[in-house]
Amino acid sequence: METSEETLKYYLSSGGLDSIPKENFSNFDPGKQKDPKSKRLAEEMVINTFNWVKEELTPFLAIFGNTGVGKTHMCRASAYFLASYQESFIHMTNQRFITIMKDFDKHESISSNELISDLMNRKFLIFDEIGFQYDPSGWLTTTLDGILIHRFDEELPTLICGNVQPKGQILTDRLKSRMKEKKMFTVTDMWDVKDYRGSKK
Ligand SMILES: Nc1ncnc2c1ncn2[C@@H]1O[C@H](COP(=O)(O)OP(=O)(O)O)[C@@H](O)[C@H]1O
Ligand SMILES: [Mg+2]
Fold this sequence. Notes:
The protein is built from eight helices and five strands; from the N terminus they run H-H-E-H-E-H-H-E-H-E-H-E-H. It is of the alpha/beta class. Helix 1 (5-14) crosses helix 3, helix 2 (36-53) runs parallel beside helix 3 (71-84) and helix 5 runs parallel beside helix 6 (139-154).
């Protein structure tokens, strides 16, 4: 399918991206990782993400790991791919989510329900930097948990990435429990992968 630049930009901007990402599936090269284990895991990550975006994987895909392993690259490449196929998606980072929600909070006249319902129901959700500025008892964590659980129950394609341990404290118990459902949830644990920036020559 041929997508004009104008259409591409329209889909990107309705998904929350102002410009065409420089990250895509062709300029991610697992072979650039130096050690064999990092290479293999980087390969697995890109295959999983590509299959997820084509809806040929489980509805939920999580990528966890250190900084610089390519998580954000996968998120932005997915957004680019979906926009190219004119699919409806929303790309969100935890930082932006917090900023927008706190802003709604300040101006009580504006409702945050619209954003929450959009995050719940948009066909694809790409959520990066999960766990950033974690606040366990806070309403933001509870709200995000509600969004993710709703999407899980509706089997809506959802990609979550972050610097968190899959079994650690930061993810909610409800989400961790659902991660055990292998038909619904693929977890790509990248904690053994080296920072790509350090391996670059
Ligand atoms: N295997 C790879 N091939 C090409 N670029 C990569 C690869 N791994 C990481 N990068 C690049 O390295 C930088 C850091 O990756 P990023 O996706 O931001 O990591 P993370 O979100 O996991 O911290 C980005 O510019 C990304 O495009
Ligand atoms: Mg990142």
